[in-house]
């Protein structure tokens, strides 16, 4: 029930558009793996799923399942199943018969189809609702039925097009837990489309950031946050700190002074932008020996139990986050701790400094820069 999905150079132009919706994207999802396509609206995420499912035809490139091209193979014979945001259940069928439907279409006798469907209903925790109609279900229950129906078809690749985005946060979290459990139970290969960074982090082994029809970076979510290949990726993922300067002698040099870079990276010397996630920066008393920098708080913005704290250091504004119970006011002098392993330099040509044993991938997009402070 799993196969390796390979996308090579997949391109799609729509009539009347000046640029391709998808521009030669490459992506591999190993058997039983889960990759997420993460990007803003209009970035081409759903188009990619439609091309894999066979609901649209690429202008260039190919889709392979276990190394075999599916070009020209109709959707119903690709052994892929696409689950949409809307469950699209058959209103006139019971929950059990909705799940049994793909089995019946495949030629299974009604009794056998229902027996198999019951097993998948059990996996999603809805056996007790087998004889209900979809109209009597909650949104989360409907989506559970949709997942059970998709898995009952035993696809080689399960395609999920933002299936949980219409659910409220509590139910969405429950669905995330369910999908993790389903992965452990039946090991499907999954390609997930989402614009929710938390969802991608919870569900996917790797995340491909899709910007303007191109994959800007494909990596683990933790590396996307701390080792972005470009300022485009850094900005899309909410990174607020980007300081222009130069890399030389294993350090980044800027108005902040020299800041050492991690020793396990290949240092590409020259113009580069220092990036450090705001969540990674610690705020300490200015006299604390751990402080890498000392500055003055210029603004504080509430963010639920935490707060976003803007600190001006030698004319450069940096953003940090305070923890629950910490309180800062404009005008306070503070120290800033920038953990060495959280520092990263993005060279001017857009490919970040990477560990020695990993490949690099670049992607152009809008830049994010630090803004001058007041003093």
Automatic annotation (TrEMBL):
Keyword Membrane belongs to the record: yes
GO molecular function: ATP binding
Keyword terms: ATP-binding, Cell membrane, Ion transport, Iron, Iron transport, Membrane, Nucleotide-binding, Transport
Domain called ABC transporter: residue spans: 5-237
Top-rank lineage group of the source organism: Bacteria
Gene3D superfamilies: P-loop containing nucleotide triphosphate hydrolases
PROSITE patterns in the cross-refs: ABC_TRANSPORTER_2 (PS50893)
SUPFAM superfamilies: MOP-like, P-loop containing nucleoside triphosphate hydrolases
InterPro entries the record matches: AAA+_ATPase, ABC_SmlMolc_Importer, ABC_transporter-like_ATP-bd, ABC_transpr_FbpC, Mo/tungstate-bd_C_term_dom, P-loop_NTPase
Listed CDD domains: ABC_Carb_Solutes_like
Keyword tRNA processing found: no
Pfam families the UniProt entry points to: ABC_tran (PF00005)
Name of this chain's protein: ABC transporter ATP-binding protein
Organism annotation: Promicromonospora aerolata
